[in-house]
Design a protein that fits this description.
Number of strands: 14
Largest sheet: 5 strands, parallel
Oligomer: single chain
CATH class of the largest domain: Alpha Beta
Radius of gyration: 20 Å
Helix content: 25-40%
Strand order of the largest sheet: 3-2-1-4-5
Order of helices and strands: EHEEHEHEHHEEEEEEEEEH
Distance between the termini: 23 Å
Structural class: alpha/beta
Shape: globular
Number of helices: 6
CATH architecture of the largest domain: 3-Layer(aba) Sandwich
Length: 239
């Protein structure tokens, strides 16, 4: 009998996951508020429900052998309850809570001596004095993605667009090349990093314009990036 994997969220990432999963002996089912979303157009097993709702996640998860996510906005308390009932949850609720909050991310990096740009956490109000000279970056702690919730302040006039929500201020990095490294980690703790991918961003919208693979960076830098990515993932201690 095939394993049933439940995915919280039915968006574009879930759609790509479903397309790859058809190559393996598993059954995928999705929980999403919109059954006609990206997953609903190609997958027959999309359950209508809210991934942030405790009861919806609990009922959905109890029908699965394993529960995972394609978005970070999910009810982690329900996932903890599912774990107590013996259902495997990947990644762990603790890991999800860390990766979806940019403030917790920064504190996590500091705790494990992982290099990151200097930052300051902000409740919501604009401070009278800023910790960095312009340009600097404001990032919403939660809910930001694909350019949303991130802005760069280059002049005082830019401050009119201030996010009056919990966020962090970060010293602007002098970026030459931005790369992504995907790390896979097994339940037994083995980690492997896939080849690096260069990302080219639109300077106005903070969105990826295109990808370049393989990376043009020096092999030494690529190897350092892989080791850093593995360090980040292993400290989370979650598949």
């Amino acid at each position: 009998m095939n394993t049933t994997i439940g995915i919280l969220g039915g968006g574009q990432l879930g759609r790509m996951l479903f397309q790859q999963a058809t190559n393996y002996p598993v059954n995928l089912t999705f929980l999403d508020k919109d059954i006609n979303g990206p997953c609903g157009s190609i997958c027959r097993d999309v359950v209508e429900g809210d991934p942030m709702n405790y009861e919806d996640v609990l009922a959905f998860g109890r029908s699965c052998d394993l529960v995972s996510i394609e978005i970070e906005a999910v009810n982690t308390e329900a996932l903890r309850q599912l774990q107590e009932e013996g259902i495997q949850v990947i990644p762990s609720p603790d890991a999800i809570e860390t990766i979806r909050d940019k403030g917790l991310q920064k504190q996590y990096y500091s705790k494990y001596s992982i290099s990151t740009m200097p930052y300051q956490l902000i409740d919501s109000e604009k401070p009278k004095d800023f910790p960095f000279e312009m340009p600097f970056v404001q990032k919403l702690r939660q809910g930001g993605y694909d350019g949303k919730g991130v802005q760069v302040f280059r002049t005082k006039d830019d401050l009119k667009a201030w996010f009056a929500e919990p966020s962090l201020l970060e010293e602007a990095a002098k970026i030459q090349t931005e790369i992504a490294v995907i790390v896979g980690r097994s339940p037994s703790g083995q980690s492997i990093a896939l080849p690096e991918c260069e990302m080219v961003f639109d300077p106005v919208y903070n969105l990826v314009s295109h990808l370049q693979m393989p990376s043009s960076l020096d092999r030494t830098i690529q190897e350092e990036a892989k080791q850093l990515a593995i360090q980040v993932v292993e400290a989370l201690d979650s598949p």
